Amino acid sequence: FDLYPFVIVSTDYIKSSRRRDDFVRSCPEFVIVDEAHTCAFSADQRGGRHLRHQLISALARDPDRHLVLVTATPHSGNEGAFRSLLGLLRPDFLELPEDLTGSQNEKVRRQVAQHLVQRRRADIRDYMQADTVFPSREEAEFTYTLSPDYARLFRSVLAYARERVADTSGGRQRQRVRWWSALALLRSLASSPAAAAATLRTRSGTAETETEQEADIVGERSVLDLDDIDTSETLDIAPGGQEGEEQPEADRSRLLRFAREADRLQGPTHDAKLATAITLVRQLLDDGYKPILFCRFIPTAEYVAEELRKALPRGVEVAAVTGTLPPADREQRVDELGQHQRRVLVATDCLSEGINLQDNFDAVMHYDLSWNPTRHEQREGRVDRYGQPSPTVRTVTYYGIDNQIDGIVLDVLLRKHRTIRSSLGISVPVPGNTGEVVQALMQGLLLRGDQMDQRQLA
Fold first, then answer.
1. Distance between CA 416 and CA 135 in Å, rounded?
2. Burial of 380: CB neighbours in 10 Å, binned 0-12, 13-18, 19+
């Protein structure tokens, strides 16, 4: 760090104490931190984010250092994490009131405005007499209806999940294990029969925990789409739905029966979600688009890719990229797929950040709805960005009209987020913590006994 006047370095490389101290000691007077939201930190977060935050905090403590924090998502719904970013700009910003509206806070807002700069596309399209080209975005929604056999399995699994959640025996830790196992079952079943079968046959990670708090940490990381998870490398693994050795044998046998039924329902004959998606992908290809399908779980992505290979015309190349591949191999597979004139990429959220996809793809289909609006923005931002050669990109939101889980996420989280974005021209988080919102809604679904055809929740 003393040898070169200009250094480009990964924060993950220098966040360890062994390298951090050397860098802080010899750091230059001007620092730009890209993807600064990954350095935000709050008391309920752990792991690498804490180390990154310690690193940037050490750099920010020098009042003579110029520090620029660059991020497209400064606020992800976690107020504590957002405050930690503001505190890097000025320590007293940590104590700002939560509500900055009103004339009484005008002075505070002016202070923040001296440090917080937002640039939208409209602001830079004609910046400095240069024409910066961005694609226009076409948004569409398409739906599917569960086949009779799949709807029957869904009702059976939902009834089982409600039974397990209603069981209050074994203390709070066991109750949380049952809760997260039930939620994992429902989420996987909404994704695909392949993901459902994997979850039904797998022991829940929460079963290994000893406390209620540990169970919640493991459950959140495997089931919810939280922004404050340090790494995306394991986010796409199908969660386990079995509760462990203490689960009654009759219940384990019941889960295995469900798994065999999920196996039987794979393929477009019984999986209406897949069948409709095949039709939509054909339409995208016919319209000249090169689509990416984003899935939540590895089994779903691999299943969808395999079925698309069978169903699409010859000459269409289909590839799947998931967290099973090392990062370098993911990029290589994307580049190889880009050599084919007609192509379809099926991916998990391991590709929702990091790798540039705009050169080879110009459409995004959300095969699985994310439970986090920010994640949706990140997916679409892989193709809808500067450098996209196509003048128009298309995004497809896809959901089941009789799938109560999709209805909750779409109506309460995603549509509200889209309305705010349309009104303000910017993306802001849905108020509150996304994980808490979804958890509360799903708790109502599991505990209230709503009917399958009820899509609206108060």
1. 24
2. buried
32-37: Cβ within 8 A, 24+ apart: 32/68, 32/70, 33/67, 33/68, 33/69, 33/70, 34/70, 34/71, 35/70, 35/71, 36/69, 36/70, 36/71, 36/74, 36/85, 37/71, 37/73, 37/74, 37/76, 37/81, 37/85, 37/227
The first and second tokens of residue 73, run together, are 């998502």
H or E element at residue 326: none
As a whole number of angstroms, the distance between CA 96 and CA 43 comes to 17
What pTM was estimated for this model as a whole? 0.80
pLDDT digits (tens, 9 = 90+) for 189-248: 999 999 999 999 988 877 778 888 888 888 877 887 765 555 445 478 888 888 777 777
Q: Among 39, 51, 50, which Cα is nearest to 15's?
A: 51
Closest CA to 11 of 20, 3, 2: 20
Segments making up each domain of the chain, as ranges: 11-117, 136-144+268-448, 148-264
What CATH architecture applies to the domain 136-144+268-448? 3-Layer(aba) Sandwich (3.40)
CA 327 from centre of chain: 17
Q: Give the burial class of 314: count Cβ atoms within 10 A of its Cβ; 0-12 exposed, 13-18 middle, 19 or more buried.
A: exposed
